[in-house]
Amino acid sequence: MGEGEVAPGFSPADLLRPQVILLDWSSEPYQQEGSTAQTVQFRRKNIRLPRHCYVGQQWYFLTACTLGRAARFRNAGLVEEHLPLLGERARAEEFAIQAYCFMPEHLHLLVSGNDATSDCLAFVNGFKQRSGFTFKQRTGQQLWQQKSYDHILRPGERWEAVAYYIWMNPVRSGLCKQPQEWPFSGSQTVDWRRLMSSAVEEVWIPPWKK
């Protein structure tokens, strides 16, 4: 299926319903790092929307996994290296980083487009290419799994619930008792620790887990 083509059985009306999209967001060739590498498995609809669906003032829940689910982001220095890159690419493509969480083997983001020209694919491509190139130059290894996951928030989906889901990820994984204890979570727009302290849990589940 080429760029801009719609999967068989997919109609324009489907754009009004929540979709889970599996996209190639990396320019690097996919190579498994050793024979024991595992790729994260999600129940999903494998649909490619036209590119214009990723341009504009929309909100996105994004997940990118490391190659082979390697625990790269246990390294605090690597996380600190990535945060300026996130901010740089967000500013370049007119996005706001509402919530983020670097887990050992994947990254969750909640981002919102600030302008009619905000391009989500350009934002993610630029971030993964830049960070992946730097990592490979230093280590000789590929950082990111080729495919990543996104969900475009629809009317009725509160961004606070999605952010709560992201920030609670380390707690659900048993890495800490309180979300504020995890050093690799945050927001570039709100005081997230204060927000979490006063928030009432809102249940939100990524569509591919339903």
Structural description of this entry:
The chain is an alpha+beta fold. The protein is 27% helix and 17% strand. A 6-stranded antiparallel beta sheet has the order 1-5-2-4-3-6, with helices on both faces. A hairpin with a 3-residue loop joins strand 3 (95-102) and strand 4 (106-113). The chain is globular. Mean pLDDT is 79; it is low at 1-46.
What proportion of the residues is helical, as a percent range? 25-40%
The tally of helices reads 5
What do we call the CATH topology? Alpha-Beta Plaits
Instruction: Point out poorly predicted stretches.
Output: 1-46
Question: What fraction of the residues are assigned to beta strands by DSSP?
Answer: 15-25%
How is this structure best summarized?
With 210 residues, the protein is an alpha+beta fold.
What keyword list fits this structure?
single chain; 210 residues; alpha+beta; Alpha-Beta Plaits; six-stranded antiparallel β-sheet; 5 helices; globular; disordered N terminus
Question: Topology, please?
Answer:
Blueprint: E1 20-24, E2 59-65, H1 76-92, E3 95-102, E4 106-113, H2 120-139, E5 147-152, H3 159-167, H4 169-172, E6 185-186, H5 192-198
Antiparallel strand pairs: 1-5, 2-4, 2-5, 3-4, 3-6
